[in-house]
Amino acid sequence: SLARDAEIYFMVFPVAGYAFHEGPRIIDGLRKGQEVTLVPEPHNGFDPRAIRIEVHGRHIGYVPRSENRPLGRLLAQGAELRARLIRVQPEAEKWEVLRVGVSLRMRGD
Questions:
Q1: Rounded CA gap, 75 and 99, in Å?
Q2: Which of 101, 90, 103 is nearest to 29 (CA)?
Q3: Average pLDDT score over residue span 47-51
Q4: Measuring CA to CA, which residue among 54, 50, 25 is closest to residue 40?
Q5: pLDDT at position 23 over 70
Q6: Residue 8's pLDDT band (cuts 50, 70, 90)
Q7: Radius of gyration in angstroms for the set of CA atoms belonging to the chain, rounded to a whole number
C-alpha cells in the first residue's frame, strides 16, 4: 500500500516564460520541493488555456502550452493537485532553470 504522503508526479515540465516574469528577481529565495500555485488565466489574450505559476503570490512563469490543456481540465474539475519546484538551477538555460512536478492528492482511508 502507498504511504499516506507518497507523491507521484504525473506531470513534469519546465516553467515557460521564466525570464520574462518575477522568477529571475526571486530565484535566490526559491528551493527545490517548494510548493507553487497554479492559476488558470481564462482571459489571457494569447492563450485562454494559460495557467500562471506563482510562488507566494509572485508570478514566475507559465505551464508550457503543450501541457496546459489536460492540467486546466483537472483544475476545472476540482482535482486536488499539488505542484512543487523539482528543479531550481539558476545557471541553466532559461527554459530549464525551474521545473515543476504536479501530483494528484489521493485520500487515504
A1: 19
A2: 90
A3: 96
A4: 50
A5: yes
A6: confident
A7: 14
Who's near 18: CB < 8 A, 6+ residues apart? 24, 60, 61, 94, 95, 97, 98
Q: Which residues of 40-71 are buried (b: 16+ CB within 10 A; e: fewer)?
A: bbeeeeeeebbbbbbbeeebbbbbbeebbeeb
Q: Enter the pTM of the model.
A: 0.88
Instruction: Give the span between the Cα atoms of 93 and 98, in whole angstroms.
Output: 10
Q: What DSSP designation does 4 have?
A: T
Amino acid at 12: V
Q: What is the pLDDT of residues 79-98, one digit of tens each?
A: 989 999 999 999 988 889 99
Are the beta carbons of 75 and 51 closer than 8 angstroms? yes
